[in-house]
UniProtKB/TrEMBL annotation, chain B:
TM regions (residue ranges): 21-41, 56-83, 134-152, 158-182, 237-260, 280-299
Protein name per Swiss-Prot or TrEMBL: ABC transporter ATP-binding protein
Domain ABC transmembrane type-1: 17-297
UniProt keyword list: ATP-binding, Cell membrane, Membrane, Nucleotide-binding, Transmembrane, Transmembrane helix, Transport
Organism: Lactobacillus xujianguonis
InterPro entries linked: AAA+_ATPase, ABC1_TM_dom, ABC1_TM_sf, ABC_transporter-like_ATP-bd, ABC_transporter-like_CS, P-loop_NTPase, Type_1_exporter
Membrane topology listed for this record: Multi-pass membrane protein
Domain ABC transporter: 332-568
Compartments where located: Cell membrane
Length: 622, 574
């Protein structure tokens, strides 16, 4: 019962996906699609006329010529030459059409890929952080490769072949009917048998292809994890165990792949030989019928019918197989559309941010008033959390009644165990996630009224885990502010003390690095990330374990530059080394999403509570 | 490349050879059937000989069934041979990657290795299946139909002699023109995947710096690059279809013209002309398939090369021929050691390192970010081979040890560390497959991991999520230490492995290590003076050189760098 419902659902989805996909193909380039279809028909037609021409050649030209010779006349090859010339014209239309649809469908497939990839990426960039937190990276990535590839396959091969086979089949069957309806009906018995076999085989093969995809996914996941931890494997001489585990996945994939491909390719010899079988049966039955006068059949008709019957079974196999790959492509298309249909980050903000170019460090909010005018409010960095509650999933509340008043220029430290909600607070501020209840007010403006991009432009974040982007060191620092000059980059690198190690690299600032950071140590990557934040020069800073991988002496020096930068700016600092936060204006101790202590270092030490225990080493931060 | 790849066929050689045999049998029968049907018509139907029709029909039926069985077997055999070959390729690659040294690993990105193990192997599998089945079938059909047409009319078959070479030359030119695009396209794919990967992983950075638009522009540049190359190569490859159809049609028309003349001249029968058409169709059909195969091979050739690159990459560190299987103590000697990560690097990562560490000693290493602290210790378990000089452990050069022996005795906890999916217990057992529960708990206790592991929902059977997301940084570090301790090593190296552990716990870990493993040489890299203060000796690293070695008290007095670090850290409280 459940299964039937599922199947119904699947079919509904399929037809939806199919129509959406066809729309996509059509709108990407309507003229390419239309011309392709026309040329496919032209090519098939030219082929058909060609087959018929051979019969005409013999009956209309060669036989009369032979007669002329027998009657002692000089054979006149003129009409034949003319017919061949006309035929050449028809053929030429055929092969040019062939070329055109091959090329156009190929290019169209690429165009659609190009468009879908760009649409998908553009949309992905607008998705909320929650999407990335909840979905497997490998799974997101495979939509750009595997799923899109099946689409290309379908557009450039399945659609033309499907159309072509369908046209051929229609022609062949009608021609057979004209020649002898009795033999055609007899052929249909074989046809029905073939159809049954084809459906069985294609169903089997699509089942095993799914199994193969699944096993491929498993081995992919295993490889991703093991290759990522390859250095650890080597340090533990764990290679033999890993090889053994791999072999299990590999063996499963081999079996599934062998079966899938057997069922897929066995179709052609079977269908080909079904054609031969039909050929033999028709010769046999037709011959018997002609001799015994069961049916009005001429020898010529039998011969022609024989030719046709050979062309009869291949299109059926083709159609069935193309149907399969279309179904596979639809599964891929569905995953792509799913990503494209994910709701983008909502943004109802109207307040924007602008920078006064003349004065350093002078930003202001542009608040549209009801009367249509725009009020300029200077950005001071006054941030208030007012009874904020939040949960990632409904039942599990993470933040409980958080109230913070971070006055302009204050350094606010967040201390607590893993999972206490420190990073979550920063996620609330830059609206990676939306609060459940309460209010966050930024310079007197509720942050929901600020456009997200502009809100984020006012906040610099340095994260514990640094991600770099392929490009030069220079590009990576400039990531914080694309308009920064080279001198600005050097300045930021010096302040963050990244300058020193950059100079030691072979190509200095022009050294190319990729997302993994290449040979850079984690500390060096963090220095780059700090430089990136410095160059962004934004009014509020969030430092989430920003210096955890940097040695203390360098940290001290970075801190000096940072203090310079932080002066006059509001900052939120998350750190497990208490040494980096003792000089904070406000220290908030978090426990299971509650603020349990608040005050500066001296006040908290006097309280002799949790912070005191941490500071004196009686308690450890997990 | 072909030589490298074909080594992976191994146990599937038999299946691979059977497939062409089946195919040849199938093709011969298939080409015989029209001929026999002709005979059936001539001798049976024309003469009204019913018993002959029945006899010949039966033979034909049997032949068809044999051909069906042969064809189906060819499919089965070729699919299994190709799947097996692909599995062997994956296995060979994966196993070979496991033999890579750190230097080799640094050369390939893990993303590209994953692609090579899947997409590229799939392409080669497809190509192989084609080669052993269709690539046999098409030439076979070509040969049989050429032979048959020569038998029917040697003069008309001259047409093939003229046309076939032209056809082959043109196709060759097309393939040569299209070939260079594919390696570029693959590079384009790598680049595009990298942009996606970086954006998926670094989405927080992209969003906080509001860099969506420039990143989209980056992506569109990379996807546009692929599109342009593909579209251009498509224009060239589509010429295939043009050439094939044109040649087929011209040949047909030529046969019409010359055939008609011959019939009129009385040297050819009408029936023979009809046969000629069907054989000319077969000839050009098989040429067409050969062209398609060639296109397929172009694409998979690029994949094959990428696979071969992985397999032929020489592991830069290999086991010596007569390896030492015993490592007796934890003595370490560095003798004028120089090291560069890459031949072309201008600066040395390690400069003239001389060092003698006695068994059981505790050594601290301190230095600024990027002063080659990790590089120095990586030489001991031979993660990299030094450029000149010698590293000796327990009196023997590290190059003379069996790698497993060496690395089992030199336990190193890496700075960039990972846990694998599986339970905590499974992860700890990496250190020692046969560790008993008691040993595991003991190691966890030394690393101060036992406490928090017991508090977890399933204790030691708690699953570690991929990437270790459900344990904190400090917990992860303690688990990786426990994992290393289970090796019961002669030398233990902690490369900044307690940075996320608070100072008190760290001290307790150090004390338990000293108490429980007095014989083990302990090398501790840290950014914190407190972590190494009690070491027997402390090495101060600076720009790839040993600046000073001594005890805490000595260094405080004489080493400026060391004392400035110490002073700063003391000032900052703890």
């Amino acid at each position: 019962m459940d299964q039937t419902i599922n199947k119904e659902n699947m079919k509904g989805h399929r037809s939806q996906t199919l129509s959406r996909l066809l729309k996509l193909v059509l709108t990407t380039s309507p003229w390419m699609f239309v011309i392709s279809l026309i040329t496919i028909i032209l090519a098939a037609l030219s082929n058909v006329i060609g087959t018929l021409f051979i019969e005409r050649l013999i009956n209309n030209y060669i036989t009369p010529l032979v007669k002329q010779v027998q009657q002692g006349q000089d054979p006149n090859f003129g009409p034949l030459a003319y017919a061949i010339a006309v035929m050449f014209g028809i053929y030429a239309i055929g092969f040019i059409s062939n070329y055109l649809f091959n090329m156009l469908m190929g290019i169209l497939a690429q165009k659609v890929q190009f468009r879908v990839r760009n649409e998908m990426f553009t949309h992905m960039e607008s998705l909320p952080i929650a999407y990335f937190d909840q979905n497997d990276y490998g799974d997101i990535m495979s939509r750009y490769t595997n799923d899109i590839d099946t689409l290309m396959q379908m557009i450039s091969q399945s659609i033309p072949q499907f159309t072509n086979s369908l046209l051929t089949l229609i022609f062949v069957v009608s021609a057979m009917f004209i020649l002898s309806w009795q033999l055609t009906i007899f052929s249909f018995i074989v046809f029905a048998l073939s159809f049954g076999i084809v459906r069985f085989l294609t169903k089997k093969s699509s089942h095993y292809f799914q199994v193969q995809q699944q096993k491929l996914g498993q081995i992919n996941g295993y490889n991703e994890e093991m290759l990522n931890g390859l250095k650890v494997i080597k340090v533990f001489s764990h290679e033999p165990e890993v090889k053994e585990d791999f072999e299990v996945y590999n063996e499963e994939l081999r079996k599934a792949s062998g079966k899938a491909n057997t069922y897929a390719t066995i179709l052609f010899p079977i269908m080909g030989n079904m054609g031969n079988l039909l050929y033999v049966l028709i010769a046999f039955v037709g011959g018997a019928a002609a001799i015994n006068n069961w049916a009005p059949l001429s020898l010529g008709a039998i011969a022609s019918f024989l030719q046709l019957s050979k062309q009869f079974s291949m299109p059926i196999a083709q159609i069935s197989q193309q149907l399969n790959s279309i179904v596979m492509a639809l599964a891929g298309a569905r995953r792509i559309f799913q990503l494209e249909d994910e709701p983008a980050e909502e943004d109802n903000g109207v307040v924007t941010i602008a920078k006064n170019q003349k004065v350093d460090n002078s930003w202001f909010w542009q608040v549209p008033e009801k009367d249509g005018s725009v009020k300029d409010v200077p950005v001071r960095g006054h941030i208030i959390f007012d009874h904020v509650n939040f949960s990632y999933v409904p039942e599990k509340q993470i933040l409980h009644d958080i109230s913070i008043d971070a006055k302009p220029g204050m350094k606010v430290a967040l201390v607590g165990e893993t999972g206490a909600g420190k990073t979550t607070i920063s996620n609330m501020l830059n609206r990676f996630y939306e609060i459940d209840s309460g209010k966050i007010i930024y310079d007197g403006i509720p942050i929901k009224q600020i456009k997200k991009d502009d809100l984020r432009k006012s906040l610099s974040i340095v994260l514990q885990e640094t991600h770099l982007f392929t490009g030069t060191i220079m590009d990576n620092i400039r990531f914080g502010n694309p308009n920064a000059s080279d001198d600005d980059v050097y300045q930021a690198a010096k302040l963050s003390h990244a300058d020193e190690f950059i100079h030691e690299l072979d190509d200095g600032y022009q050294t190319i690095i990729d997302g993994d950071g290449g040979d850079l140590s984690q500390g060096q990557m963090q220095l780059l990330s700090i430089a990136r934040a410095m160059i962004a020069d934004e009014p509020v800073m969030i430092l989430d374990e920003a210096t955890s991988s940097i040695d203390t002496r360098t940290e001290k020096m970075v801190q000096a530059g940072m203090d310079n930068l932080l002066a006059g700016r509001t900052s939120f600092v998350i750190a497990h080394r208490l040494s980096t936060i003792v000089n904070s204006d406000l220290i908030l101790v978090l426990d299971h999403g509650h603020i349990i202590e608040a005050g500066n270092h001296d006040e908290l030490i006097k309280q002799k509570g949790y912070y005191y225990e941490l500071y004196t080493g009686k308690k450890e931060i997990q | 490349m072909i030589k490298t790849l074909s080594k992976s066929i191994r146990q599937y050689k038999k299946l691979s050879l059977l497939s062409p045999l089946f195919v040849i049998g199938e093709v011969i029968i298939e080409m015989l059937i029209p001929y026999l049907v002709g005979v059936l018509i001539d001798k049976g139907i024309m003469k009204g000989d019913m018993p002959y029709i029945q006899k010949a029909g039966l033979i034909l039926l049997v032949l068809t069934i044999v051909s069906l069985v042969l064809g189906a077997s060819a499919s089965y055999v070729s699919a299994h041979a190709a799947a097996g070959f692909a599995a062997n390729l994956r296995k060979d690659m994966f196993n070979h990657i496991q033999d890579y040294s750190f230097e080799n690993i640094d050369k390939f990105s893990s993303a590209s290795l994953v692609t090579r193990l899947t997409t590229d192997v799939n392409n080669v599998q497809m190509a192989y299946q084609i080669i052993i089945r269709i690539a046999v079938r098409a030439p076979m059909m070509l040969i049989v139909s050429v032979v048959m047409s020569v038998i029917i009319s040697p003069r008309l078959s001259l047409i093939f002699l003229v046309i076939a070479p032209i056809f082959v030359v043109i196709l060759g030119l097309i393939i040569r023109a299209a070939y260079p695009y594919f390696p570029k396209i693959f590079k384009g794919y790598d680049r595009m995947n990298q942009v996606v990967r970086e954006n998926v992983r670094g989405i927080r950075e992209v969003k906080t710096y509001v860099q969506e638009k420039p990143q989209i522009a980056q992506f569109e540049k990379s996807s546009g690059f692929i599109y342009k190359l593909f579209a251009t190569s498509q224009k060239i490859i589509s010429l295939n279809a043009l050439v094939v159809a044109a040649v087929l049609n011209i040949a047909t028309l030529a046969i019409c013209w010359f055939g008609a003349k011959e019939i009129v001249g009385g040297t050819l029968q009408t029936g023979q002309l009809v046969s000629m058409f069907s054989y000319s169709n077969s000839v050009l059909f098989s040429l067409n398939i050969l062209a398609m195969i060639a296109t397929q091979l172009i694409i998979s050739g690029a994949s094959g090369r990428r696979i071969a690159n992985v397999i032929t990459e020489e592991p830069s560190i290999e086991n010596p021929r007569k390896p030492l299987k015993r490592l007796t103590n934890g003595e370490i000697i560095f003798d004028h050691v120089n090291f560069k990560y890459d031949e072309s690097d201008k600066t040395l990562a390690l400069k003239d390192i001389n060092l003698h560490i006695r068994p059981g000693e505790t050594i601290g290493i301190i230095g600024e970010t990027g002063s080659s602290k990790s590089t120095l210790v990586s030489m001991i378990p031979r993660l990299y081979d030094i450029s000149s000089g010698a590293v000796r452990v327990a009196g023997h050069n590290v190059k003379s040890y069996d790698l497993k022996t060496l690395r089992d005795n030199v336990a190193m906890v890496l700075q960039k560390n990972v846990l694998f999916s599986g339970t905590i217990k499974e992860n700890l057992k990496w250190g020692n497959e046969n560790a008993t529960d008691e040993e595991i708990v003991a190691a966890a206790k030394v690393a101060h991991a036992d406490g928090f592991v017991r508090e977890m929902p399933d204790g030691y059977d708690t699953m570690v999520e991929q990437g270790g997301n459900n344990v904190s940084g400090g917990q992860k570090q303690r688990l990786t230490i426990a994992r290393a301790l289970l090796k019961k090593p002669k030398i233990l190296i902690l490369d900044d492995s307690t940075s996320a552990v608070d100072t008190n716990t760290e001290r307790e870990i150090r004390q338990s290590l000293a108490k429980d493993m007095p014989e083990t040489t302990k090398i501790i890299i840290s950014q914190r003076i407190v972590s190494i203060k009690d070491a027997d000796r402390i090495i101060v690293m600076n720009h790839g050189q040993i600046q000073d070695i001594g005890t805490h008290d000595e260094l405080i007095k004489r080493n400026e760098l060391y004392s400035s670090i110490a002073k700063f850290q003391e000032e900052n409280g703890k």
